[in-house]
Fold this sequence. Notes:
It holds the Pfam family Pet191_N. It comes from Mixia osmundae (strain CBS 9802 / IAM 14324 / JCM 22182 / KY 12970). This is Cytochrome c oxidase assembly factor 5. InterPro entries: Cyt_c_oxidase_assmbl_Pet191. The protein contains 6 helices and no strands. It is an all-alpha fold. It has a domain of 54 residues.
Amino acid sequence: MACRNLKADLVLCVQRSPCCVRDHNDVATCLRDHTNELPEECRHLRTAFFECKRGMLDMRKRFRGLDTGTRRQDLSKAQEIDKFQDPLSAAAASAASGPPTNS
């Protein structure tokens, strides 16, 4: 199934949301009745999952192939980029705090 990874990520996100944890609702209830209360990441995953499922029915995509949802690959790329940016942001933070003072 092409949308399996997106569905798994969506379920995990909703299970960790206050709707499930604090209010003790199940995932289906949160997705159906409390969509506006979900974190932004869960709402984006919900939209991506919907688009993936809709793409499975779109006859034009049958010729081009399905977009299988490369969220995990995108996250790993973003984490690799963050590794390279961390030294720069640490240097910028230390420069913003000013020069060291001698007491």
